[in-house]
Amino acid sequence: MRYFIRRRVPPFSRILLVESGSRGLFEELLKGLYDVHPDMRADLVTCYAGEPRNFRTDRGCVYRVTDYPNRGERKKLYRILADNHYTIVGIICSDEPIMTKWKWVLAVRLPAKIFILNENVDYFWLDRGHLSNIRHFVFFRGGLTGAGAVRTLTRLAVFPLALLYLILYAATVHLRRKLRTL
């Protein structure tokens, strides 16, 4: 996340795409990226078998997370990716729990500008210039926008009280049981 402070977008010369969502979204993104940046070299981190429809294997490598099952091999992958000196990392955040830990670890570890792609194939840059978009995205994913906000906030407020009630109830039941055995 090297470019979080700066709003400047680096060139699309070397890009890493993290396929952490629907393959259809990714194929749409690739088509548009190759149209706008024809000289771009893109690598792919994925959990799916095979390559996406529009991915150019002559200009990029595919890294499968299933090939790196343990911690030591994952560190090796992180080193390989860091040595590739990517200028941009693209991450899919489409409300699907696919490669969640992988995408955020890569976002933090790689010194590149990051863009987030949502389920509508819209994207925004992860930098200080787009904090309002990031805030709205987080609130929307957390259920804190629209009519669902009241329900979510009520659940958050009631949770400690419900937890306290359950702990007191369990303590009372166990204490009564203990007193009966004496």
Short description:
With 182 residues, this protein is an alpha/beta fold.
Name its key features:
182 residues, alpha/beta, 45% helix, elongated
Explained architecture:
By secondary structure, the protein is of the alpha/beta class. The chain is built from five helices and six strands; from the N terminus they run E-H-E-E-H-E-H-E-E-H-H. It has a six-stranded mixed beta sheet, with no helix packed on it. Strand 4, helix 3 (100-109) and strand 5 form a beta-alpha-beta unit. The radius of gyration is 22 Å and the shape is elongated. The N and C termini lie far apart (62 Å).
Number of DSSP helices?
A: 5
Beta-sheet strand percentage?
A: 5-15%
Overall average pLDDT: 86
The counted number of beta strands is 6
Order of helices and strands: EHEEHEHEEHH
Task: Indicate the topology.
Layout: E1 14-18, H1 23-36, E2 41-46, E3 62-64, H2 71-83, E4 88-92, H3 100-109, E5 113-117, E6 123-125, H4 131-141, H5 148-181
Parallel strand pairs: 1-2, 1-4, 2-3, 4-5
Antiparallel strand pairs: 5-6
